[in-house]
Amino acid sequence: MIEAFSTEVLWIVIVGFIMAFVLAFGIGANDVANSFGTSVGSKVLTIRQACCLATVFEIAGAMLIGYKVSDTMRKGILQVDVYEGAEKELMLGMFAALIGSTLLLLGATFFKLPVSATHSIVGATIGFSLVCRGDRGLNWETLGMIIGSWFVSPVLSGLISVILFVIIRRFILNASNPLVPGLLALPVFYGVTIFVNVFSIVHDGPTLLYFDRIPWWGALLISLGIAAVAMLIVQFLVVPYMKRQINHAGSEQKTPDGISFGGLKKKDAVYIETNELGKQSVTWTNSEKIQPNNVTNDLVQTNGTTNNQLAIPNGDKETPPPSNTPNLGQDNPAFSTSPDDNTTQSQPEEKDAKKDEAPKEDPPEVGKLFSFLQILTATFASFAHGGNDVSNAIGPLIALWLIYTEGSVQQKSETPLYILFYGGVGISVGLWLWGRRVIQTIGEDLTKITPSTGFTIEIGAALTVLLASKIGLPISTTHCKVGSIVFVGWTSSTKQGVDWKLFRQVPILF
User: Fold this and answer.
1) Which pLDDT value is given to residue 396?
2) Residues 227-283 pLDDT 10s
3) Are 352 and 429 in contact (CB under 8 A)?
4) How far apart are CA 19 and CA 182, in angstroms?
5) At what angle do helices 10-30 and 364-406 cross, to 10 degrees?
6) Most CB atoms closer than 10 Å: which of 338, 342, 393, 421?
7) CA trace torsion 493, 498, 500, 503 (10° rounding)
């Protein structure tokens, strides 16, 4: 037995606060990549912009919806009754779980592995309880639900993302003019996303904020009202702005290699020659001012080999090619940019064979539209992540604090909001100082991300995480995001569209 605020265990609480901050730091460095990795990978946001948005929404999610999962972590997994009279032993066990999880996360982040913070803290909690009380110390029903959710959540997340992607591809991407249905859908996407977020906060929300007193129909009306206002704002302010932006971008037409229309100056005229051996050489000529539609391709017979010659006009006369008759090979898929290019004629064929396997690029106007949407979904994902994963660092710390202040293992008090805020700050600091390592792995290396696929990936993962947070299940946000990435990557291309070698390495430390 210990008394409330006993100095005997004060050192455990102090060091526990330090270790919890370091663990939150590791989660921020590793797991926040799940929220903004795809946004950075698709070039929608810079890392600095992602960090700014994540700081706000990770902390907001932690404070507004993180209390249920933290309750599960601190007294749902364990049978706390068996520790009656052994409060110090339980505190030491929670302290050990913090240390073990911290070491794993920091090590994984150093090696750029997106591991699950949820798995590490749950495993550490199970481990110390098995040592202290055997199987009597665990709540097997709750534990079974948590472990089951780890297998269900990536599939659910992937299915939500795929269904949304198929709908978008059918009605927007494959439309004759994708911009029209895309702009019509913009207010709907915003309204639904904001509705889900607001309802998750207001319905059965934190007791300390008195949200638990709002009936379900009141939460529904509040959420619908805020979502309707957001849709009107998007329709009358954002949609006209997006139209202007897209039309402005579409008016700036350019050809490869810097050739611009409208009488602009070209950097240099370029001639590319492919000889009998498949070797390519490049000759740069002086800069000339060109006019639209004055670039011609002529067939030239050189040493018995037919080649294409690119003629760049010089006033009313064509600039003659060099004496060795440089030319543009007909099989060359794009302008070369280096005189030392050793590409053979067989390589374009290989690239063409792989072209159907890779995810297709979004049309420019659709890419810009979904880039704007992806900022919204990334913040949604960040909010959901803060609400779920902050418990991984703060759950054991809350147990330490409440046992210390109450002198009881029952921990009857509500989860303090200031400790949730403390965890959110730790997550944000970790993201700013070390998070870009895993952002690259999630956002760029696993599969190619475009704005439209990134949008569907983030929506599917965020909805799944948010649902789990409201139930109180500490699921793996890494599983959800990787599941959505793989499902959408495969659906948008073929199974070769996903780096399966890298994917097999990701679950090693799950």
Assistant:
1) 92
2) 999 999 999 998 998 888 887 766 654 444 444 333 333 344 444 444 444 444 444
3) no
4) 47
5) 170
6) 393
7) -140
Write down the pLDDT at residue 271: 40
- Interatomic CA distance for residues 44 and 38, integer angstroms: 9
Tokens 């940019």 appear where?
337
Q: Is 90 exposed, middle or buried (0-12, 13-18, 19+ CB in 10 A)?
A: buried
Q: What's the token pair of residue 188?
A: 């709907």
Neighbour tally for 348: CB within 10 Å: 15
Among 187, 139, 208, smallest CA distance to 418 is for 208
Please provide residue 272's backbone torsions phi and psi, each rounded to the nearest 5 degrees: -120, 130
Identify whether the C-beta of residue 486 lies closer than 8 Å to the C-beta of residue 498: yes
Closest CA to 182 of 239, 220, 137: 239
| Average pLDDT of the residues in 3-16 | 93
Give tens-digit pLDDT for 379-427.
888 898 888 888 778 999 999 999 999 999 989 888 899 999 999 999 8
CB 271 within 8 A of CB 327: yes
Map 195-229 to HEC letters. Answer: HHHHHHHHCCCCHHHCHHHCCHHHHHHHHHHHHHH
Cα 35 from chain centroid? 4
Of the candidates 164, 163, 235, 224, the one whose C-alpha atom is nearest the C-alpha of residue 195 is: 224
